[in-house]
Amino acid sequence: MTQLTIALTKGRLERQTIALFEKAGIDLSFMKEKQRKLIFNSPDKKFTFLLVKAADVTTYVRHGVADLGIVGKDVLLEHPLGYYEMLDLGIGKCKFSVASTKNYQPDDYKRKRIATKYPTVASEHFRQKGEDVEIIKIEGSVEIAPVLGLADAIVDIVETGTTLKENGLEIFEDICSISARVIVNKAALKRKREAIIQLFHTLEPVCEGGNEV
Ligand code: PRP
C-alpha cells in the first residue's frame, strides 16, 4: 500500500481539516488525543501527518519530506514556488483586505506606508493599482500599526472582522478571497499518483468550494 505523508497547518486549520476528512469517511481519530505530539501514523498505515506552522508547510512539501501539504492560500501567495496547488478544500475561508482607521484617505496623493505580515501580497496589490507604496513588514498584531502611526493602512487577513472592529479599524478594499488548499510535491505526484488522485476523489464531494470576494 502507498503511504502518503501530509504536512498539515497546526491550529484552526488542523481541526477543520480533521473534520473534513472524517466527513469524507477517513477516520482520523488517532489525531485527537495528541497532547504535544507532532507526527502521527494512521493505524492502517495509509497516512502520516506532520503538524507544522503554516509557512513551513510549503518547505516540507518542496523538499519532498511531505508528499502533500494543507495550508491557506494566504501562505501560498507569499511562497508561490516549488509545488503543485491542486485542490481547494473550501475550509478556512477568509479574505485579504486593506484596512485602516476611519480618517484614512486612500485616494490622496501621499505615498502610503502599508504594514503587513504579507509583503508579497501587499506590494503586488498596490503594483497592480499603479500605486507606489512603502511596505513595512510586521510579524503580528498588525492592527495597531495605523492606530499608532507606524503605517497609513494595513494589508491583513479578515475572517470575522472582530479584530479590526476591536481595534477601531475598517475595511477600505478587499483584495482576494482565501481558503485552504492541498499542495503536492512534484516528484510525489509521479511516484504516488494513484494514491493522491484517490484521496482527492474521496475529498472532493465534501469540499465546500472556494469563496469569491
Ligand atoms: C489573523 C489576522 C487577524 C485575525 C483576523 O491572525 O492577522 O489578526 O486573524 O481574524 P478576525 O477577522 O476573525 O478577527 P491569526 O489569528 O491568523 O494570528 P496571527 O496574527 O498569529 O497570524
Compact summary:
The protein has 213 residues and is α/β, with parallel strands linked by helices. 30% of the residues lie in helices and 28% in strands.
Largest sheet: 6 strands, mixed
Look at the structure and give the mean pLDDT: 95
Fraction of helical residues:
25-40%
* Structural class estimated from helices and strands: alpha/beta
The figure for the number of domains is 2
Please work out how many helical segments DSSP would assign: 8
**Could you tell me how far the N terminus lies from the C terminus, measured between alpha carbons in angstroms?**
41 Å
Order of strands in the sheet with most strands? 2-3-1-4-11-5
Explain how this protein is built.
By secondary structure, the chain is an alpha/beta fold. It folds into 2 domains: about 5-90 and about 180-205, 3-Layer(aba) Sandwich (D-Maltodextrin-Binding Protein, domain 2); about 95-175, D-Maltodextrin-Binding Protein, domain 2 (3-Layer(aba) Sandwich), CATH 3.40.190.10. About 30% of the residues lie in helices and about 30% in strands. The chain has helices at about 10-25, 55-60, 75-80, 120-130, 145, 160-165, 185-190, 195-205, and strands at about 5-10, 40, 45-50, 70, 85-90, 95-100, 115, 135, 155-160, 170-180, 180-185. The protein has a 6-stranded mixed sheet with strand order 2-3-1-4-11-5, with helices on both faces. Strands 8-7-9-6-10 form a 5-stranded mixed sheet. The chain binds 1-O-pyrophosphono-5-O-phosphono-alpha-D-ribofuranose. 1-O-pyrophosphono-5-O-phosphono-alpha-D-ribofuranose binds near residues 140, 159, 160, 162 and 163.
